[in-house]
Request: fold
Amino acid sequence: MRRLGRSGACVILPFGLALGGPAAAAIGGLEAPAWAIAPEDGACHTDFELTARSGAVAPVALVSDGAQVALRFAKEGAPAQAFLPLRIDQKPYANLVQRTGEEGVALMRLSDETLAAMKRGKTLQIAWLSDEGVSGSLAGAAQGIADLRTCGAQVAAQTRAREAELDAQRTRAAADARAKTLADAQLAAVRAQTAAAQAERDRLAAEARRATAQAEALSAQAEQSQAYAEQQRERQMQVERERAYAQQYYYRDRPPPDPYGSYYRPYYSPR
Reply:
């Protein structure tokens, strides 16, 4: 049997969607075994084969995520979209066909009316799947489709939970990355502010040192000027002392100068 499933699907066991034509007569009135259903990525599927009168086999699969059931098949040159019929007990049921991302693989999403007919019907017939019409028995379809949808719902729920957890992890990772980026930015801003504050302190300290040096220079200049002035005063005082001493020495043995000059005449009384 050729499998028509996604990679990673479980092994499909033989199951009881009996073949049409001569194969149907071969099984006679034997009860069909249960459908073999296997999980895949986000859904479950069951594979079976439709046969032509010539014995050619066309593998197909029913796939369900719990909400919908689709007929998956491979056909070269399948259109991107089409509205094609399949027959259940000779009655046509048209459904939308869409090509998937896999090369040559398409999905026919089965309507509720088609699924109800499959559950009640006996034979599935498809005329456009290969060069000649193919068919197969729908024995056990009612329970098989119900089990397929139950399996698909459970697998889809697990997939959604896993994806939700992965999304939560990605969200947490993104939040952590944003928080780290913000923390790094804040740390960089704090470091920049600290560096700016330190530079300002250094500038103020340098200005204070320059002001102190200027004040010290002015103070030294003032002290030097004061010392020079003191020296000048001392020199002037020394000159004055020397002049005073010279005058005192000059008039020590001489009478004091006559303030009246030649107009002064001493008075002598007669005897």
About this structure: The two ends are 188 Å apart (CA to CA). The domain at 22-163 is CATH 2.60.40 (Immunoglobulin-like). Helices lie at 22-27, 112-120, 141-250. Confidence is low (pLDDT under 50) at residues 1-33.
